[in-house]
Design brief:
771 residues; alpha+beta; Immunoglobulin-like; seven-stranded antiparallel β-sheet; 51% helix
C-alpha cells in the first residue's frame, strides 16, 4: 500500500541519518575549526613544518570521516518496520502480524486477526531521528568549533581570501627572495659586452637585450613544480637548485616555487639593431692611383668588422672586398678610413660602385648607399712606362697578343738607354718576354712584372717601398685589433721603422722628401721621437696611445709622400740630392775606417805643448794610407763635379771640399786621427748642404718646411688662429715613457728571481699580466 510504503521509507531514512550523522558532524566540526584558524590567520605563525602539515592533516581527517559516513550500512526492511512500530507506540506489532502466515488453526479467526492488524497499521506514524551526538560529544566541542568560526568570520571578513590562501599555501610568507634562498640573474649575449644583472625583489620593469639568458639559483627544497618561466617557455629547477632559460618573449619573468609564485618581473626584450655605416667624405683619388674614402660606422652593442665592396657596373663580375681595420673593440661609433692602392687592378680607370658595409657581433649587416666613382688610375709620364701599362691592359683583354708584345719587349731590351740601364727593369722585362713566348702564361704574374717595371721606370724604388710601408702599417694595426702581446707589437714597430727608412730613401731619390732632411734636423727628430714613442708604448702595453700615434704617423707620411698637383719634384734637383746623399754616405764610411785606424786616446800626449810621438808607419800601413787618400781624393773630385753641375751650390759644399782636401793630406802622411777629425767636419758640412738644398726645393714648390711652422711653447702647430695638437706635442715628454719602460723591465727582472717569496712573485705576475 503506498501510504505504508512511504512511512517505511521515512523510518528507514531516520535510521540512516542516525548512523551517518556522527562522522559527518565530526567532519563539519573539523572543517569549521580549520576555517576558524585560517580566518584568525594563525597558520602562518606556526613553524614551517607544522604549517605545511596543517592543511593536509585536516583534509585527510575530513576525508576519512566523510568516507566513513558514505560507507554507512543502510537499514533493512525489518529494522524499518520495527522503527515505525516503535515510533507509533502501538501495543502489538501489526506489520509483523501482516507478514506472518497461518500454520494451523481456524482460518476465519486468523483472518479476523489480520483485519484488525491492518486497521492498526493505518494509524502508524514515523517519528524524527533520535539525537545521537550528545552521547558521542558530551562536552559539546562541536559548538565550540562553530562559535570560533563565527568569531573568525566577523573579524577577518576584510581579508578573507588572503587569509584562506595563506593557510592553504605554506610558502606564502617564507623568505623566498632573500639572497641565500633565491637569486635571479640576467646574462646578456657575449657580443653585447654587457655585464650580468642581478634582479632585486620589488624591482620594476627590466629591459634586456634579445637573446639574453635568465639564470636562477635557489637553496629551497620543496614540492615539485618549481620552475623559471617567461612567455610560453619554462625551465624546471634541477636537483642542484639551478635553472636556465633563454628569454624569447615577455611579458614577465616568473619564478614559481612549489605552489607559490615566488617572484615576477616585467621584462621588455630590446631587439639588436643592425649596424649603420655612412660615407662622410666623397671618395678621392690621386695621380698615383690611390683611393681614399672616409666613413662613420656605429652599432648599439659594438662593431666587429667593416669593409668596402667594390663592384663594377657590369653585371656578373665578382666584387672586390677591401677590409677596414677597426680602431678598437666593440666600438659604438667609429671613424673609418679606407686607403687603397688599386692602380694595378683591371678596374682602374673604369666606373665602379663602392658599397661600405659593417657587421656586428650578432652577425647582422648594414650597408651605406652605394657610391659610384671612376676608380683612380695612375698617370705615367714616362713613355716606356705608359707603353708597358698599355700592353699589360691589352694582354688582360686579349692574351693572344702575347707573341707580338714579346717581340716589342725584345726590341726594348736591345736598347738599354730606353730604360736607363736599370738591371731590375731589364730582369722584369726579360722574364715577361719569356713568359709571353709560351702558348700559355701565368696572367697574374705577368701583370705584376709589367706593373713593377712601369712603376720603377716612373718612380724608381718608391712603389715597392710604399707597399712595404703600407704592409708594415697594416700589420701593426691588425695586431692592435687582435690584442697581440707586447713582444709582437715591438717586433712590428721595428718592421715599420725599417720600412719607413726604405721609403724615405726612395722619396729622397725622387726629390719628394719634404719633411726629413739629414740626421739632426727638426722634422727628422720629430719622426725619430714618434718611432721611439711607438716602441715605448708597445713595450708598456699602451694600445690606445699606440693606435693614436700610428694614425698620426700615417697622416704625416701621406703628406710627405704626396706632392701637390702641378708641383712635382725637379728631376735635376732630385738627382743632385741623390748624388749628395751618396757622397755623404761614402764620406761617412771613410770616417769610420779612419776612426778605427786612429791610435787610442791614452797614446796621445795630454799636454798640448808636448809634441805627439811619431812612429814611422810600416810599408803595409803606408800602402793602406795611400789607398785611403786616393779614395778621399776621388770623393773630393766627385763633390767638385756635383758643385759644377748645380746652378747655385750651397756654401757648405765648398767648406766640405776644403775639409776633404785636408783629410786627403793627413791620410797621405798616415795621420789617421787628424784625418778622422777633418772627415767628421766634412760629413757635417755635407749634411748642412743637403739641408740647404731641401729648403730651396721647398721654396721652389711654394711650401714652407714643416720645421718652420709656428708652434706654441708645448710644441703644437698653429692651425688658423688656434694651436692644435698634431701628435708631436712634447707634454708629456719622452722621460715619462722611458720611466715606464724602466719600471716594466724591473718588474720583469724581479718576477724571474726564484729566491723571492711566493706571495711577492704572485703579486708581480699580476702586475705584469696586462703587458
Amino acid at each position: 500500500m503506498p501510504t505504508l510504503s512511504r512511512k517505511l521509507r521515512l523510518a528507514r531514512l531516520a535510521l540512516l541519518w542516525e548512523r551517518a550523522w556522527p562522522p559527518l558532524a565530526a567532519a563539519l566540526s573539523l572543517l569549521a575549526l580549520f576555517l576558524a584558524l585560517a580566518l584568525f590567520d594563525v597558520a602562518p605563525l606556526l613553524p614551517f613544518w607544522l604549517h605545511a602539515a596543517l592543511t593536509p592533516a585536516f583534509a585527510l581527517a575530513i576525508a576519512v570521516l566523510v568516507g566513513k559516513a558514505c560507507r554507512t550500512e543502510p537499514p533493512s526492511a525489518d529494522e524499518a518496520a520495527r522503527r515505525l512500530e516503535r515510533d507509533s507506540h502501538v501495543a502489538h506489532r501489526p506489520l509483523a502480524a501482516l507478514a506472518d502466515d497461518l500454520a494451523t488453526g481456524d482460518p476465519v479467526l486468523w483472518q479476523a486477526h489480520r483485519d484488525r492488524m491492518a486497521r492498526d497499521a493505518q494509524h502508524l506514524r514515523p517519528g524524527w531521528p533520535d539525537p545521537v551526538l550528545p552521547a558521542r560529544d558530551p562536552l559539546g566541542l562541536r559548538f565550540a568549533a562553530l562559535l570560533l568560526l563565527i568569531l573568525a568570520m566577523a573579524g577577518g571578513r576584510s581579508d578573507m581570501g588572503g587569509r584562506l590562501a595563506r593557510a592553504v599555501d605554506p610558502y606564502s610568507l617564507r623568505p623566498a627572495l632573500e639572497s641565500d634562498t633565491l637569486e635571479v640573474w640576467i646574462v646578456p649575449p657575449a657580443y653585447t659586452g654587457l655585464g650580468q644583472t642581478l634582479l632585486k625583489p620589488g624591482q620594476g620593469a627590466v629591459t634586456v637585450p634579445a637573446g639574453s639568458m635568465a639564470r636562477a639559483v635557489t637553496s629551497w627544497r620543496g614540492w615539485s613544480g618549481s620552475a623559471l618561466s617567461a612567455g610560453g617557455s619554462a625551465a624546471v629547477f634541477g636537483e642542484n637548485g639551478r635553472a636556465e632559460l633563454a628569454l624569447t618573449a615577455g611579458p614577465s619573468l616568473d619564478v614559481r616555487l612549489g605552489l607559490r609564485m615566488a617572484a615576477s618581473w616585467p621584462i621588455t626584450l630590446r631587439a639588436d639593431q643592425p649596424p649603420s655605416i655612412a660615407v662622410t667624405q666623397p671618395p678621392k683619388g690621386d695621380e698615383r692611383g690611390r683611393l681614399t674614402l672616409e666613413m662613420e660606422a656605429g652599432d648599439d652593442y659594438g662593431l666587429t668588422r667593416a669593409w668596402v665592396e667594390v663592384r663594377p657596373l657590369e653585371e656578373g663580375a665578382e666584387p672586390l672586398r677591401l677590409d677596414l681595420v677597426l680602431p678598437g673593440e666593440r666600438l659604438h661609433q667609429a671613424r673609418l678610413m679606407l686607403r687603397a692602392d688599386l692602380a694595378d687592378h683591371d678596374w682602374a680607370g673604369t666606373k665602379v660602385r663602392l658599397t661600405p658595409k659593417a657587421e656586428d657581433g650578432a652577425g647582422q649587416k648594414g650597408e651605406a648607399p652605394p657610391v659610384e666613382i671612376v676608380l683612380p688610375e695612375r698617370i705615367f709620364r714616362n713613355p716606356l712606362a705608359r707603353a708597358l701599362v698599355q700592353w699589360r691592359r691589352q694582354l688582360s683583354d686579349a692574351p693572344r697578343m702575347g707573341p707580338e708584345i714579346a717581340e716589342e719587349l725584345r726590341q726594348i731590351m736591345e736598347q738599354p738607354e730606353a730604360f736607363g740601364g736599370d738591371d731590375r727593369v731589364f730582369l722584369a722585362l726579360s722574364v715577361s718576354r719569356h713568359m709571353l713566348m709560351r702558348p700559355e702564361f701565368e696572367r697574374d704574374r705577368m701583370r705584376s712584372l709589367l706593373w713593377y717595371a712601369a712603376t720603377r721606370l716612373e718612380d724608381g724604388g718608391l712603389p715597392a717601398a710604399e707597399k712595404s710601408l703600407e704592409d708594415a702599417r697594416s700589420s701593426l694595426e691588425r695586431a692592435l685589433a687582435d690584442k697581440a702581446d707586447a713582444a709582437e707589437l715591438s717586433r712590428l714597430v721595428d718592421q715599420l721603422e725599417a720600412a719607413l727608412e726604405q721609403w724615405m730613401e726612395a722619396l729622397a731619390e725622387l726629390g719628394l722628401d719634404q719633411s726629413l732632411p739629414p740626421e739632426g734636423s727638426a722634422p727628422a727628430a720629430d719622426l725619430s721621437d714618434m718611432l721611439d714613442q711607438l716602441r715605448g708604448m708597445a713595450e708598456t702595453g699602451d694600445r690606445e696611445g699606440l693606435r693614436r700615434r700610428l694614425e698620426q704617423l700615417s697622416r704625416l707620411m701621406a703628406e710627405m709622400g704626396t706632392p701637390q698637383k702641378g708641383q712635382g719634384g725637379d728631376p735635376a734637383a732630385a738627382e743632385a740630392m741623390r748624388r749628395l746623399r751618396e757622397l755623404t754616405q761614402r764620406q761617412q764610411d771613410l770616417l769610420d775606417r779612419s776612426f778605427r785606424k786612429a791610435p787610442p786616446e791614452d797614446q796621445v800626449a795630454p799636454d798640448e805643448d808636448t809634441p805627439k810621438p811619431r812612429r814611422k808607419p810600416s810599408p803595409r800601413e803606408a800602402a793602406e794610407a795611400r789607398k785611403e787618400a786616393a779614395e778621399q781624393k776621388a770623393l773630393r773630385q766627385a763633390l767638385e763635379q756635383l758643385g759644377k753641375s748645380m746652378p747655385q751650390p750651397p756654401d757648405s759644399l765648398a767648406e766640405a771640399e776644403r775639409s776633404m782636401r785636408g783629410a786627403e793630406s793627413s791620410l797621405s802622411e798616415g795621420e789617421w786621427a787628424e784625418a778622422a777629425d777633418q772627415q767628421s767636419e766634412a760629413v757635417k758640412r755635407l749634411q748642412e748642404g743637403a739641408r740647404q738644398m731641401i729648403e730651396r726645393m721647398e721654396a721652389a714648390r711654394g711650401k714652407g718646411a714643416p720645421a718652420l711652422l709656428p708652434r706654441d711653447p708645448f710644441g703644437r702647430t698653429l692651425n688658423g688662429s688656434t694651436f692644435a695638437d698634431d701628435g708631436r706635442t712634447k707634454v708629456p715628454g719622452r722621460s715619462d715613457t722611458m720611466r715606464a719602460r724602466e719600471i716594466l723591465q724591473e718588474l720583469r727582472r724581479r718576477s724571474g728571481q726564484p729566491h723571492r717569496p711566493e706571495p711577492e712573485r704572485d703579486y708581480l705576475k699580476r702586475l705584469l699580466k696586462p703587458f
